[in-house]
């Protein structure tokens, strides 16, 4: 209060929550599902097409096998992610209930607690859509190339480039090392395609 009797009210500025309180744990719920789904779709469909291409030169056989793997894989990813995250949801919800009953934690806001819980539907949709997007890369690439040998090389190159993109995208959003993420997903994708191609080629040769 000043000498003239006027009252001064000091208002403290609110902290900038957007810049300093980003919750990367919550982001990881959908980020993990999306990145895993995209990588799985890319590698699974590409490996399946490579395996078929090892014994069949027909473009129709490769594309149809890729499409079947795309649909089946997206459904499998969605169901698996839903069940997994829902189990985590039940566990965390039960833990909150136990803490309340034992008076270890006093919950003042139920909405805040619900936001902290994992979202099974969000994870399932993100995983399925990401798988579908990732699996489209080798399929779309193969559609435009008629020569079998060129098609196989171009599909492998396109998948490698997409793996680098997905690895970079996941690392940037999750604030993790980009180089390590890219190398990890690239080597894993190459190994999956090479193993599938090699074993299918071997079994096809023995059968023929």
From TrEMBL:
InterPro entries, per the entry: Ccc1_fam (IPR008217)
Keywords: Ion transport, Iron, Iron transport, Membrane, Transmembrane, Transmembrane helix, Transport, Vacuole
Catalytic activity, reaction form: Fe(2+)(in) = Fe(2+)(out)
Record keyword Membrane present: yes
Cell compartments where the protein resides: Vacuole membrane
Membrane topology annotation: Multi-pass membrane protein
Transmembrane domains' residue ranges: 30-52, 59-79, 121-145, 152-173, 185-204
Pfam families documented for this protein: VIT1
Top-level taxonomic group: Eukaryota
Function of the molecule: Vacuolar Fe(2+) uptake transporter.
Entries under PANTHER family matching the protein: FE(2+)/MN(2+) TRANSPORTER PCL1
UniProt-recorded name of the protein: Vacuolar iron transporter
Lineage: Eukaryota, Viridiplantae, Streptophyta, Embryophyta, Tracheophyta
């Amino acid at each position: 209060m000043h000498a003239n009797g006027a009252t001064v009210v000091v208002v403290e500025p609110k902290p900038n929550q957007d810049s300093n309180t980003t919750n990367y744990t919550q982001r990881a719920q959908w980020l993990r599902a999306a990145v895993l789904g995209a990588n799985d779709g890319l590698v699974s469909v590409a490996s399946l097409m490579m395996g078929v291409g090892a014994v069949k030169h027909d473009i129709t056989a490769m594309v149809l096998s890729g499409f079947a793997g795309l649909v089946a894989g997206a459904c499998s990813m969605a169901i698996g992610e839903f069940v997994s995250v829902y189990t985590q949801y039940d566990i965390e919800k039960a833990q909150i209930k136990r803490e309340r009953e034992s008076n270890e934690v006093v919950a003042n806001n139920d909405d805040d607690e619900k936001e902290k819980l994992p979202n099974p539907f969000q994870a399932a949709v993100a995983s399925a859509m990401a798988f579908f997007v990732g699996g489209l890369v080798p399929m779309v690439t193969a559609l435009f190339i008629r020569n079998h040998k060129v098609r196989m090389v171009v599909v492998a190159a396109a998948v490698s480039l997409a793996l680098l993109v997905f690895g970079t995208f996941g690392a940037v959003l999750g604030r993790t090392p980009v180089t390590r993420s890219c190398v990890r997903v690239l080597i894993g994708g190459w190994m999956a395609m090479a193993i599938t191609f090699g074993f299918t080629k071997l079994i096809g040769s023995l059968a023929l």
